[in-house]
Amino acid sequence: GLRFMGLFRFKLWWMTQRMGTCGKDVPFETQFLIVEGSEGSPLSTETIYVVFLPLLEGAFRAVLQGNENNELEFSLESGDPSVETSHGVHSVFVGAGTDPYEVITSAVKAVERHSQTFSHRERKRLPEMLNWFGWCTWDAFYTDVTADGVKQGLESLEKGGTPPRFLLIDDGWQSVDMDQNAKANEVVHSANFANRLTNIKENYKFQKDGKIDERQDDPALGLRHIVLEAKASHNLKYVYVWHAITGYWGGVKHDVAGMEHYSPKLSFPVQSYGVSQNQPDDALDSIQVNGLGLVHPKKVFQFYNDLHSYLASAGIDGVKVDVQNIIETLGAGHGGRVRLASQYHQALEASIARNFPDNGIIACMSHNTDGLYSSKQTAVIRASDDFWPRDPASHTIHIASVAYNSVFLGEFMQPDWDMFHSLHPMAEYHAAARAVGGCSVYVSDKPGHHDFDVLKKLVLPDGSVLRAELPGRPTKDCLFADPARDGKNLLKIWNLNKHTGVLGVFNCQGAGWCRVDKKNLIHDFQSKTNTATIRPKDVDYLPKIADENWNGDSVVYSHKGGDLVRLPRGAALPITLKSRDFEVFTVVPLKELANGITFAPIGLIRMFNSGGAISAYVSDPTSTTVSLKARGCGVFGVYCSVKPQTIFVDSMKTEFSYQDESGLASFTLRVPDEDMYLWDIRVEV
């Protein structure tokens, strides 16, 4: 029979996955659907994958949903009562093929050519901050963040040997205030969604010797002095700050000096029917009560450019632009949601291009197709709902959601799997996921609250990370399974490095989004152990990094187990995980050297993504010498079917150990003197 995996918005801002077998299982607000079936007769053994992409057409946005007759429907919506239609001509794209990931990529690229309104991820510039360890202020301080708090956080991580090179100053730095009669949001560990932006410059907490209700007009005494000092004292490479797409949660305040020339108008959100049938949201509820000061679309580039040029002059390198989906609720009177989103995104990207040359933007709370199909430059997108440190139900859900959402989002941008806490019961679980996600690695630890043993499996002493190259995605045999709810399947996530594959396996069972209660719930409190098998072919693109004459044999190294296993073509390795447990495997195609010797580099074996350390790998089937270039420090491992005669590091003979049973040769790389230094390694067999 048929199986599908769909991605739907369970609340205004975010998507999550839903698996099913019939039309009525397809939820409201499904923005991506892939169906697995067989071709032709029931006896056919060839699997066919069909992808459905609801699109933007003119002023309308399409979305999929099922009905009680097991039919698949699409709904068209403009978001403006004055903009109507009775039909859609190019509302849904359908593509089919025998490889699910190739079908998805081909479908999105076909839509790209048709629409000319967005660009595929492969054609976008990825900001360099992705390759460096970061610290975000949000879960450390929430909106109580101060300049001193920023300094404490940087110093604390630096002292432990994992220096951040990327800083994200989240919500709490801006100048905001409420209207006189507004109803404040008083939820703990949250923002006050009733506040509006009163000035594009920082508040007193980020001004030198700042005092409440006093403003320093000298830019040198504002954000600039904090940013430049942090870069000089802590060798920061990139500093980003947070802002909402509308300035702040409640938009821009219209009745304060300096903001009137943006022509903000009080607007009240109207959510679509599909969103209203899913999970309620505190932020949206507050904005619906208090309204939002919406900058006029004709003034929005000026607004962004004024804001971003000021930030750039203060040494800021980029912005996290949050609350993006609120635009879809404000289309009335502006020609509809699609037109308004297009105007805002064009202005935003034009300002980013002018002010932040490294394409410094992270899109957040932005899981709607209005934005995805309007983005030509933005290259990083938050992949799921937040990391919620105090919600036990959220952690396994988070890992499953980021992996499945990346199937679709990863065609548009590099998914960001969010920050996490390194000192937390689920810290290693989250850290391992970031290692296979291909995403940025950043934490939101409070100063002094760190687990450096966890962090040092992700972060090198120079502050760089071993980031995998692609968006991490579920393996093909997990794509239509339900590893959060079915009680039996483990979630396997694959990715590639330059010369190795990486495979994360997670027990995500026991919690999920409940369609009845419309929130995340733990549905199975009994700790269960589940078993799966791993195969080299789980790393879907592994042949792309293997030799042309590769016979399919590989080696697999387990991070937690420390085992190195040679797997012949077609062989499988069983793995059993307890509830909320994980394992990370490095998977490497074997290469043939002279005299029947086989070889494979593993990398820094105490790092989660060990193979990410290898930047060059040269061998010759007529020789018994292998050359590698690698970065980082610690124990470096290679597989060799016979004991090597000599190993050289930067032309210096190096001591190594060799395990006859597994074929693992290992040696130690010292901490290099230079950032991003590449060791020259030569193995003579």
Automatic annotation (TrEMBL):
Catalysed reactions listed for this entry: alpha-D-galactosyl-(1->3)-1D-myo-inositol + sucrose = raffinose + myo-inositol
EC number(s) per entry: 2.4.1.82
Superkingdom as given in the UniProt entry: Eukaryota
One Pfam match: Raffinose_syn
Primary enzyme class: transferase
Alphabetic keyword roster: Carbohydrate metabolism, Glycosyltransferase, Signal, Transferase
Protein name per its UniProtKB record: galactinol--sucrose galactosyltransferase
SUPFAM superfamilies: (Trans)glycosidases
Signal sequence, start to end: 1-23
One term of GO molecular function: galactinol-sucrose galactosyltransferase activity
